[in-house]
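Design a sequence for this backbone.
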């Protein structure tokens, strides 16, 4: 990735297909910008070259408003680029082999000091397991060091016996609110920690680990920019905030960044105050589909006693939302299951009633499966559905298995849009790829590109390419409180652009979306071009 320009001089894109937003396109257009601000937009016939202007001829390429990923975890994503990630493995044996190989490469002093091994990416569905992996499997690989590996969806933690002993997990069985320590037939922890139980296993980052994370942000931003992203909405905790502040001061945080403070109880909100770059409180309502912990109104298929996990009770959720609003925050609440989404929308409805004068942004993160009667509530309440189309590709088979016919209202892109709801798209990286072209393809086709002959999954919920692009641009700007600055190509807007080598808005075959390349990414007027 090579930076091509950071000056505040006058620049212009000419001879391009300019997508303004909301379906409006200039087939041969130009955009003039100075520094981080767009000064002029129009058809090529109206373009006037000015002295000293740096002109970039797009040669018919597509110029989009800068694409933004509305939900990812920037620090973990960046760190994982060089860390242990088993998400590409397809069997338990492959996963264990990768862990074993990673252990073999670690410095000797790590093991002599009893240092931790951490990572992520395992998936029992992808590995073809009926049950979860066990602590004994990790004990064999690393008997003398604590091991903690997050699942691919981030809602489960797989640990070895040393971790269980270190944190006294055997004594905590049955006493974790909003989580579960899984046990075997003898009542012993198996090594699987669900939802809030994973929060018990924590450790302070060393200064060196934090410094490594700061350095990783540069690589993370470069990788995201190479995919065409000019901005992100990232979930953070205090450790992440320190890393991002340091990266920003050092010039490594090159993308636009909206931060969402992740909290787990009312007391977490008390010391926080909204800031321009961190205006959101992020709360967990439930778990996830992959771990069968998403909160459902009816039991999971073939699991008559399981309706998921309520990570935050309805009463606590209401208190947390109301306190956040009183302090001036906007809200982003994680909800996967139909019960969780109903509860969140109920709480948001009460919040709108209690604070009618507040213009706070209210978001549901994921909004994955809904009751049909809850779909119109997004538009009616002015709630944004912050969704991740790439999850659909990984989840469609799992959803059919565990939700059955309820899946007809899963990833209800078209239904939400037609009912007047606003959508904002993202990826939840590092859980899924942050590639927005793959997200657009998923929203438009509802098919797995690895199975081209497989039929579309509930195709009545497909949306247009323009609609998907708008969710990464206009929807993203609205969801991040930046609608006056970004999300469209207009005079006075921020100079954020994504240039594609072909016009995906008009291609006859949607699979060709995946063949498009990113020719240029511009964030705040600064250009980064993939090698």
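Sequence:
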């Amino acid at each position: 990735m090579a930076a091509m320009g950071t000056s505040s001089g006058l620049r212009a894109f000419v001879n391009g297909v300019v997508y303004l937003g909301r379906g409006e396109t200039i087939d041969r257009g130009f955009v003039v910008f100075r520094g981080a601000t767009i000064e002029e937009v129009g058809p090529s016939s109206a373009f006037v070259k000015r002295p000293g202007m740096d002109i970039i001829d797009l040669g018919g390429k597509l110029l989009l408003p800068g694409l933004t990923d509305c939900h990812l975890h920037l620090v973990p994503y960046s760190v994982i680029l060089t860390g242990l990630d088993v998400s590409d493995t397809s069997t338990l044996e492959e996963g264990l082999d990768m862990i074993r190989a990673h252990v073999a490469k670690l410095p000797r002093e790590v093991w002599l000091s009893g240092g931790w091994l951490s990572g992520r990416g395992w998936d029992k569905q992808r590995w073809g397991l009926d049950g979860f992996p066990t602590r004994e499997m990790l004990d064999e690989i690393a008997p003398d060091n604590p091991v903690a590996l997050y699942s691919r969806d981030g809602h489960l933690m797989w640990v070895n016996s040393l971790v269980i002993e270190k944190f006294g997990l055997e004594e905590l069985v049955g006493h974790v609110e909003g989580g579960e320590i899984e046990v075997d037939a003898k009542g012993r922890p198996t090594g699987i920690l669900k939802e809030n139980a994973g929060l018990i296993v924590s450790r302070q980052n060393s200064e060196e680990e934090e410094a490594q994370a700061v350095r990783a942000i540069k690589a993370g931003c470069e990788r995201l920019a190479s995919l065409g992203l000019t901005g992100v909405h990232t979930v953070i905790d205090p450790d992440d905030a320190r890393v991002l502040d340091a990266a920003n001061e050092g010039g490594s945080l090159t993308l636009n960044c909206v931060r969402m403070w992740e909290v787990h109880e009312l007391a977490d909100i008390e010391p926080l105050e909204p800031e321009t770059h961190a205006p959101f409180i992020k709360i967990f309502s439930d778990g996830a589909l992959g771990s069968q912990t998403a909160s459902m109104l009816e039991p999971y298929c073939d699991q008559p006693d399981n309706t998921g996990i309520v990570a935050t009770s309805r009463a606590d959720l209401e208190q947390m939302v109301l306190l956040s609003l009183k302090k001036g925050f906007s809200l982003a609440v994680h909800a996967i299951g139909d019960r969780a989404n109903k509860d969140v929308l109920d709480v948001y409805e009460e919040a709108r009633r209690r604070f009618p004068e507040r213009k706070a942004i209210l978001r549901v993160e994921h909004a994955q499966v809904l009751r049909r009667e809850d779909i119109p509530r997004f538009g009616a309440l002015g709630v944004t559905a912050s969704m991740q189309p790439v999850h659909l590709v990984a989840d469609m088979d799992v959803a059919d298995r565990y939700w059955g016919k309820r899946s007809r209202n899963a990833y209800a892109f078209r239904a939400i849009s037609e009912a007047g709801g606003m959508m904002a798209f993202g990826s939840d990286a590092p859980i899924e790829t942050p590639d927005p072209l793959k997200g657009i393809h998923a929203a438009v086709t509802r098919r797995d590109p690895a199975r081209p002959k497989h039929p579309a999954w509930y195709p009545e919920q497909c949306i247009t390419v323009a609609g998907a692009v708008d969710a990464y641009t206009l929807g993203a700007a609205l969801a991040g409180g930046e609608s006056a600055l970004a999300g469209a190509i207009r005079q006075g807007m921020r100079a954020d652009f994504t240039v594609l080598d072909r016009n995906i808005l008009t291609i006859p075959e949607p699979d060709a979306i995946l063949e498009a390349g990113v020719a240029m990414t511009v964030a705040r007027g600064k250009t980064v071009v993939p090698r």
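The CA atoms of residues 338 and 370 lie 5 Å apart.
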